[in-house]
Amino acid sequence: MSLAPRLRIGITIGLHHEAETLWNNGIKQNAVFLAEALKHCPTVASVVLVNTTAVPITQALPWDQSRWPTVTFEAAKDSVDVLIELGGQIDAAQTDYLKQRGARLVSYCCGFEYVHAMEAMLFSKPLWGQNLFVNQRYDDIWMVPQVSNISQPYFEVLRRADARPVPFVWSPVFLDERTRGLPDAGVYQPKAGPRRLSVMEPNINVVKFCLYPVLIAELAYRARPEAIALLQVTNAERLAKENMEFITLMNQLDLVRQHKAVFLGRHETPVFLAQNTDIVVSHQWENPLNYFYLETCWQGYPLVHNAHLCADLGYYYQGNDVSGASTRVVEAIDTHDAQAGAYRERQRSLIGRYLPGNAAATEVYDTLLLGLMRRAAR
């Protein structure tokens, strides 16, 4: 019996700029990490990144194109067996072309689309206007586990197909590259004296917002004011300057009244951690696993968080228990430095389950691809 031919995979991205940074959101990183993970599957022959926009592909891209080849849709359309639509959408004509060739099309869902749609409609935040195209010809829908609880029904009803959870994938490859020139490669270093707390939520929707982390820091400060030097809240400069509700609420806090809090603009995570941070305080609502947590813990920083899908990482607290979270902040202040090295090694060992090449994840993706090709195309 002859073996089935190995698959040629394409993963879409949507470039907005030919030298686009990898740190403005996780989508480009997600595509690269998925590509790296799929390379380990026995059924996969090759993986390319497929740009669906008109932005030219040049050497200015922030990744190694010999390792992660990047091509246009036109260059890929005749040579992929499976196109995974992740960071850029193809249109109806492109879909039809692939289908006529017998290629399979997968929707890889890694965003909180239900939340984005809800906020767009409720708060008049333009999202798609009259240009919405919901492709209903996917052969499969794959979704990362953290989006399934709130968005799976949304995916399934509109795309008219069942959605399957898939392993979350992350790699330190870009983190290591960005921190190579930093002192101590950007990893956490013990220090004496009061601690600098950092909150780095994006503050672009309700899923990851800074308010509860600020309240957690406030309770920790009330308990141990001498132990906290500063609270830094990134991605909050506009709120602190323009939003009167935010300003008025923040002015109720001891941290603000005693000039121990600053509200900053956007910063790259690895650099801000290395230069400005001793403890990270986080809170999520329907986003219980993301790259920020893994970046922070990989570098050995104490992360106080409520993400139940990675509860064994960092300093976990449950739900909206800000009092319990503030206790964990104080615990990190008092105990972290004495076990900083062991903590970092443990975090990296635990994060191993998300790395490309992890045996369990590789098996799942290989099985998904085999099943995809065995089923009749839609």
Notable traits:
15 helices, about 375 residues, Rossmann fold, six-stranded parallel β-sheet, 2 domains, 13 strands, alpha/beta
Major sheet characteristics: 7 strands, parallel
Question: What share of the residues lie within helices?
Answer: 25-40%
Question: Count of helical segments?
Answer: 15
Domain count, please report it.
2
The assigned CATH architecture of the largest domain is 3-Layer(aba) Sandwich
Distance between the termini: 27 Å
**CATH class category of the largest domain:** Alpha Beta
DSSP summary, beta strand count: 13
Walk me through this protein's architecture:
The mean pLDDT is 95. The protein starts with 6 loop residues before the first strand and ends with a helix. The longest helix is centred in the last third of the chain and has 16 residues, at 359-374. With 378 residues, the protein is α/β, with parallel strands linked by helices. The protein folds into two domains: 7-171 and 355-374, Rossmann fold (3-Layer(aba) Sandwich), CATH 3.40.50; 177-353, Rossmann fold, CATH 3.40.50.2000. The chain contains 15 helices and 13 strands.
